[in-house]
Design a protein that fits this description.
The chain is of the alpha/beta class. Helices cover about 55% and strands about 15% of the residues. It contains twelve helices and six strands. A six-stranded mixed β-sheet has the order 3-2-1-4-5-6, with helices on both faces. Helix 2 crosses helix 3.
Length: about 280
């Protein structure tokens, strides 16, 4: 299982490299006599996001050193650039996911296509636990509790960012699988119906029979930054990939647009979910 679905690369305790980068950023900011609020406004990120970077809980965005030059000076920008290169070379799965988690927090638009499991932002607690309980190699109950809390905390994005557009295309076979059993599946469907009723959330089910299907190459996540730049993120077995190249992101946006046209619309999705729940 992967970062968004139930693997180990969820938000973790700060690594030494991330904590070091955060301490360097904090020192440079304080030397410039800037509060976190002042610095956040100058670089165009939220105060909460900057705080998490300084605490080593978020992978810094690639453009942070460049944005920081005007606020902290060219020497500080170079120090941050060099420090970020070290993080990039040493980044493991958790580091890459922390970077995407930071992108999610700032995004103006978030799209997801899932063919493996219910997207992490839409998972009720019982489903999250069902995923981690079945993870191999097994984890301790303490680890499961930690991962569940991290996932639930991340889901607050949807309620705390009412102006962010969230779009999800989910394969019907994910619900057919009944991960965790009938009762868990009922709770999943109820949760999808509840979340889909929000003004900023669109949930579409891809029917199990669809001769024209643009998602044959697998899952994809897409985010539009506050600067209207699109980024993409993909996952596989023990691997994940942040995609910033405009040409590649454009290709995935085209595929996602096609997927939305091939899936059931939101109203038909609600009807199908209600039918599936009634059949359980």
């Amino acid at each position: 299982m992967t970062a968004d679905q139930g693997g180990g690369n969820v938000e973790i305790e700060p690594s030494e490299s991330l904590k070091t980068f955060g301490a360097v950023l904090k020192s440079l900011r304080e030397l410039a006599d800037l509060t976190q609020d002042d610095f956040a406004k100058r670089v165009g990120y939220s105060v909460a996001y900057i705080a998490k970077i300084e605490q080593g809980k978020r992978f810094p965005p690639t453009d942070l050193p460049g944005r920081a030059e005007e606020a902290l000076g060219p020497l500080a920008s170079k120090v941050l650039t060099d420090a970020a290169k070290t993080l990039t070379r040493r980044a493991g799965l958790a580091s890459w996911f922390q970077q995407w988690a930071g992108i999610e927090e700032e995004a103006a638009t978030l799209y997801a296509y899932e063919c493996r499991a219910v997207p992490g932002l839409l998972q009720p607690e019982t489903y999250i636990r069902a995923l981690f309980d079945r993870r191999l190699p097994p984890t301790t109950q303490e680890q499961v509790d930690y991962y569940v809390k991290a996932r639930l905390d991340r889901q607050l994005l949807i309620s705390t960012r009412p102006t962010t557009e969230f779009g999800f295309v989910i394969e019907q076979c994910i619900l057919d699988r009944r991960m965790g059993g009938r009762e868990v599946t009922k709770q999943v469907i109820d949760h999808l119906l509840e979340m889909g009723a929000r003004r900023n959330v669109a949930i579409q089910i891809m029917p199990r029979v669809q001769e024209d299907h643009a998602g044959i190459e697998g899952t994809m996540y897409l985010a539009e930054t506050p600067a209207n730049q699109w980024l993409a993120y993909t996952e596989g077995q023990r691997s994940n990939n942040l995609i910033p190249t405009p040409k590649d992101v454009s290709m995935l946006l085209q595929r996602y647009g096609k997927l939305r046209s091939q899936a059931l619309d939101c109203r038909a999705t609600v009807e199908l979910l209600e039918q599936m729940r009634g059949a359980l």
